[in-house]
Design a protein that fits this description.
By secondary structure, the chain is mostly helical. It is about 45% helix and about 0% strand.
Length: about 90
């Protein structure tokens, strides 16, 4: 994807906010097909987005599990390792 190239709406001459939308997000005019991503490009972009979301989900899950383990390994033993107080009579 070439991000240096600016795609402009032919009607309002503003940069297109999305090359996936068939209409200009600013003026609502139909964007010519040659300015839009092809079906193959849209499918590739959606697949990349889906893979990215899944990777982030897995990373967040791993971080959450690591944090839970850290709490269990450091805090909980303090509460359960002490001997209960005994009453001396």
């Amino acid at each position: 994807m070439n991000i240096s190239k600016l795609y402009l709406c032919p009607a309002c001459e503003k940069p297109l906010m999305s090359r996936m939308s068939p209409r200009c997000n600013r003026c609502g005019v139909m964007v010519p097909p040659e300015l839009l991503y092809s079906q193959e490009e849209r499918a590739r972009i959606r697949a990349e987005e889906k893979a990215c979301v899944e990777r982030l989900r897995l990373e967040n899950e791993a971080k959450r599990k690591a944090a839970e383990k850290s709490v269990q390994d450091s805090v909980l033993p303090m509460f359960f390792s002490h001997n209960p107080p005994t009453s001396e009579t």
